[in-house]
Amino acid sequence: MAWTLRRSRGRHWATLLGATALAVTAGGALACPAGAASANVDFATHCIPPAVAGIPPIDGTTTANISVDNETPKVGDTVTVTYTVVTPAANNPTSLALPADIMTPTGKVTLGGAQTGDVTVTGPKKNDPVPGNGVFPSFSMTGTFTVTSPGTITLSPGDYNIHTSYILELDTPCTVTNPPAPVSESVTASPVSQPNTRAISLSSASGAPGAAVSVTGSDFTPGASVTLAGRSGDNQTADTATVTADSSGAFSGSLVVNDKTTSGIVAYEGSAWSSDKGAGPAAYAVIDDTPVPAGSQKLTTTVKAGTLSMSQAGDAVALSSVDFGKGGASTGALQTVTVQDFRGGPAGWSLTGKVTDFTGTGASIGAGKLSWTPACVTKAGSPSTCKAGSAGSVGASGATLASAPDATTTGGEFTVDAGLSLDVPAFTPPGSYSAVLTLTLT
């Protein structure tokens, strides 16, 4: 994929004599955007303007909100946090306008409840121009934390700092007067599921109606009662038997298979089949040896298993151009990918992608600057249902574009798309930049 930067013309930077400074005011609350999951909160803020401003510390009000990319993570998951200062407690105290893209915010988000600590967040050096005596614009900062404890974790806005780079390098640190600030967002973390390592094997993959097949199993709960059962597709047949796991969780038993539609055999603990406490299905077919009546003909057919494959609508994507000095989002759409799973059986699939750095003449844009918003559509009649990956950065290490889970019966055809966005730094040298996005289906 390739895209082009187009340099803007006619911009003239005026010379500003003297230092710029930020003063603190009481900020009013803004309504939370429609449909936003997080809540705007107000909290008292103590800000210290740069010494060059000659203004004493002033106490004001900040309006902010916290949002996350995953409200129901598991322990061990990484959650991306966005801290948006909707109305900062700061404004331009002079009549001189401040140019765009001079502000770099940093801050922290305070965790509470099931997990405590602070999340460091940073924002890009990007802001709208600030008119003379105008209110400082809203800004957002992002960071991540790893979930370490199950339960409800609250997130509150914390201290933040506004750094400006124009004529002088200046900082305006703002601290929460009465920490912690009100809770703006929360996540509910669940424990890590213990992997199911139960397994079974059969003495034979086929047999005549009424034949017995030996079933051995391992890693079941020691001493547990284990049900052996035939399966016909997604349904259990009437053929069952019960065995008991020994002190190591192993067992050996026998199941008589009468149902001619049997396609597999499972073993499970409890009163009904559960993939969490079961193993299988192990493939098993009943060979119907019933004699053909006189004057009749026995008809048979075979359904052959296919493969897991993907195809693309094209191999090049042209992202939109951006202006030198402004930068921003260079956008486009992934060429549509079609996944066909004609294998049969219980296995699902995963489609992942990773991207190289965008390189140009003497410059580059990091792979982490490319993000996508995946979408996946399942063709009607497919046994599986695909799930789109999470929106976010693709990067050199890669991310999931789409997937389908393991199940008793899987397969089908799926259409995968994604919106693409490359965050181009404002003063990236003009020219054409390109990268290679590699998709892998497993």
Automatic annotation (TrEMBL):
PROSITE patterns: PROKAR_LIPOPROTEIN. The keyword Signal applies. Residues 1-31 form the signal peptide. Keywords: Signal. It comes from the Bacteria. This is Beta-xylosidase. It comes from Streptomyces mangrovisoli.
